[in-house]
Amino acid sequence: MRLSGSGGGDIVKNTTLARLIAQLGGHKRLLAGAILGAVTSVPLGLLGPVFIGQAIDGIIGPGQVDFAAILRGLVLLGITALASAALQWLMLVCTRKLSAQAAQRMRRQAFAAVNAAPLQRIDGHPHGDIVSRLVNDADAVAEGLLQALSQLLPGVITIVATVVLMFWLNALIAVIVIVLTPLSILFARFIARRTTRMFRAQTRAQGAMSAYVNEHVREQALLRAFGAEAHSAAEYGALSEDYFNANFKATFYASVANPGTRFINALVYAAVGIVGAVLALNGAITVGGVSAFLAYANQYTKPFNEVSAVLAQMQSAFASAERLFELADWQPEAPDADDAAAPAHSAGHVQAQNVQFSYDGVTPLIRDLSFEAKPGQRVALVGPTGCGKTTVINLLMRFYEIDGGEITVDGADARKIKRNALRGLYGMVLQDTWLKQATVRENIAYARPDATLEDVMEAARAAHAHSFIKRLPNGYDTVLDSGGENLSAGQRQLLCIARVMLEKPDMLILDEATSSIDTRTEMLIQRALEKLMQGHTSFIVAHRLSTIESADSILVMDAGRIVERGTHAQLLEQGGFYAKLYHSQFAPS
């Protein structure tokens, strides 16, 4: 690939263009229909000035009118106009479908890449920016492709066909048009080089603003609780100002292109009129020929006007395509080994030996972590915020891969178990609830879509959610808002607990599973969880230490290490780190 100008920037540009063309190639029938419509409709439409010119030449003088020639020209003009319109309709239908389907395909590829990417990569990227790329950028690509296919493709054919027809009518005037036209091309190229960079800055600013809005709208309650509305508005104002400046510069430069090329094309049109008139007076061309030539001169310059008119749309689409391809290029999780096991059940014997982990590969977070959870045991993880409790859970589930050491399940290295199979052995109830926009029944049966209504109701009763579900407008068929915002925080958590109870996993992970539930309901849930955990290995992350007093083993963590371990009674008797944490929760301020 040839490098020019900005070097690496041209590589990115050429690669993006090649990938966009490849996306279009995935819809060969639509692409063929668009090309066929353009190749046939444009030449037919360009024959109109020839027939009009012939009709004009049929008017020889006063009393000397060749009506047969005029009628023949008008009939041919009508036939070609109708045929050209029908074929142009075909082209527009194909180009619209082609652009929409190509953008949809890119969106799906990017979304699939996000779903397959390591969780660590997703956690390290602003979620609002990902949403902006999948929605806004994909729409910009679709519109840009539509403009390119419906304007550029016919434009190129128009230029070639008009050049042929102009040389057929008069070579001298054709040369004048062709010599002057590059001024318009050079001007459009000058503008395009600058707008590409500016539209990239615009899309980046738009992504940053979308990420900020997504974050602050979601956390409005917390924002208002701390009276941070003014500060949030000021930060948003700064991001909005950045977006405005980038958008203004890009739009301004793009808007200059169209009037500039139109001015140059007007000069070309004037030159054709003057030279044509002189040649007509000398008998070198007929009046009808001059009329046809003026029409072709206008037709010849029109594609350059259209290119400049859609320049902003196309440059924006190009920048958006780059952002979509960046998502699509995210590397997926390392594939499971071919000989990886896929156990359907587990006895629940989990061991960790000298586990090491770091988020950035530089600063260690988990260091020399070792523990054993025997089948049926309840292991609690406690410690101050940021000590690594939730990270341990992520390592058990292989959401993150360990840097050193080993985690085994029933004696098998977790890295030699297929991820989906390993994660299927656990049931998780997290502090942060997640519900999708669907019915209550579908949310509870998320892991078991084939579950019967009786199974769903049984799980809801076990989670003490049945009573409030029956009071909803449509019971189990009530459609929840996105995120379950039409329920209280406690009700959302009850549904998440019911979801796990329906799944009946071999092992459990409970991360502050009852943090949003009132005291009375918490007691009922604790009984239900006690029943669910019976005979199942369970890992419990807790901040309220009173909820894990019955745990078989308590791992006390601090700064990524296990500093104490034992039962509740043993740790209190030691009077160490755990005892201080426990008593601090009940001591007066």
Task: Detail the topology: elements first, then pairings.
Elements: H1 8-25, H2 28-46, H3 48-57, E1 59-61, E2 64-65, H4 67-116, H5 119-123, H6 127-169, H7 171-180, H8 182-218, H9 220-225, H10 229-281, H11 287-309, H12 311-328, E3 350-357, E4 366-373, E5 378-382, H13 389-396, E6 404-409, E7 412-413, H14 419-424, E8 426-429, H15 440-444, H16 453-462, H17 466-470, H18 489-503, E9 507-511, H19 519-533, E10 537-541, E11 553-558, E12 561-566, H20 568-574, H21 577-584
Parallel strand pairs: 5-10, 5-11, 8-9, 9-10
Antiparallel strand pairs: 1-2, 3-4, 3-6, 6-7, 11-12
Helix pairs in contact: 1-12, 2-4, 2-6, 3-4, 3-11, 4-6, 4-12, 6-7, 6-8, 6-11, 6-12, 7-10, 8-10, 8-12, 10-11, 16-18, 20-21
List keywords for this structure.
63% helix; 6-stranded mixed beta sheet; alpha/beta; ABC transporter transmembrane region fold; disordered N terminus; 589 residues; 21 helices; 10% strand; 2 domains; 4-stranded antiparallel beta sheet; Rossmann fold
**Separate helix tally:** 21
Q: Beta fraction of the residues? A: 5-15%
In which order are the strands of the major sheet placed?
Answer: 8-9-10-5-11-12
CATH architecture of the largest domain: Up-down Bundle
Assembly state of the chains shown: single chain
CATH topology name of the largest domain, in short, is ABC transporter transmembrane region fold
Low-confidence residue ranges = 1-12
Largest sheet: 6 strands, mixed
